[in-house]
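Appendix B: a complete holo record

For completeness, this appendix reproduces one full record from the ligand-bound portion of the collection. The bound molecule is S-adenosylmethionine. The inputs are the chain sequence and the ligand SMILES; the output is the full three-dimensional arrangement of the complex, encoded as structure tokens. No fields have been trimmed.
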Amino acid sequence: MANRSHRNAGHRAMNALNKAGQKHSSDALVNADASARTKHVYEVGDCLDMLAKIPDNSVQLIVCDPPYNILLADWDDHANYIAWAKTWLAEAERVLSSTGSIAIFGGLQYQGEAGSGDLLSIISHMREHSKMLLANLIIWNYPNGMSAQRFFANRHEEIAWFAKTKKYYFDLDAVREPYDEATKAAYMKDKRLNPESVEKGRNPTNVWRIGRLNGNSLERVGHPTQKPAAVIERLVRALSYPGSTVLDFFAGSGVTARVAIQEGRNSICTDADPVFREYMTKQLGFLRAEGLLNSVRQYDVVEGLENLDPSYEALTPGIPEAAE
Ligand SMILES: C[S@@+](CC[C@H](N)C(=O)[O-])C[C@H]1O[C@@H](n2cnc3c(N)ncnc32)[C@H](O)[C@@H]1O
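The structure of the chain with S-adenosylmethionine bound, as generated:
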């Protein structure tokens, strides 16, 4: 089938700007003060209660890894999945800034196992009921996983990246992959290629080969579906900028908070399970053990939005409306 990615409205707008030699208006955001002290709030509670407390257009990136009715745990059970999901999807759209994005994790392989929820049903709901643009369907391809006898063993999950508007922020340079020395030397000699681009490295594409966390991974805090920091890091680096706010209302292991601290973003994380507090303590312990952060980045962590002084404004530092 022909490649129709050029028909994607977001891609078309960005390509038009590039061809005209113009910078996207959100490029100005890259110069935000990366050394500022960042704020991190976490709460135990329902996603909708947290969302209700967040102002409109105030969040740059939502990392969203929802439960999918596959009965992995008590929280993984919703009788009418889409009726529930559409409430937080609408709230997510409301709180995102015009340059903002939501990255929704999921897969298609569980469909029908225990209910009506999977990423396909979310994407199809968004197509009909949301103005957000599907910028990419990212394939997270992992080399490790369960074996299978009656079908091909699964080695991928998907991440649907929706942008709130076509003015979405995207920093490709922050996530380029360096070429190996031999390839780089060959490309540098190739007159058809721009040496500056070769120097920057390659676009990592929408297929990300990153291992899942093994049972004995040092990153693990005990959550059954903890995602690797490397996956969250790539989303945070590409789709948010220093000083902006990242929200995760199904925060699970707290990995998003940890990555936000490391990357100089603010964060708001919530999870319904009280064990989340213990996971956060472990994540913060990892950061302290790594040591380097105290000298490089200054950050405050508080439990409960109401304990953030002076107010939520600290989390939404002057997100400018991107120009037309
Ligand atoms: C798939 S896990 C998220 C894992 C997380 N991304 C990580 O890497 O650690 C989904 C999480 O959603 C939480 N959850 C389920 N229903 C919730 C609700 N209504 N509000 C907030 N959190 C909820 C569960 O406790 C669970 O930790």
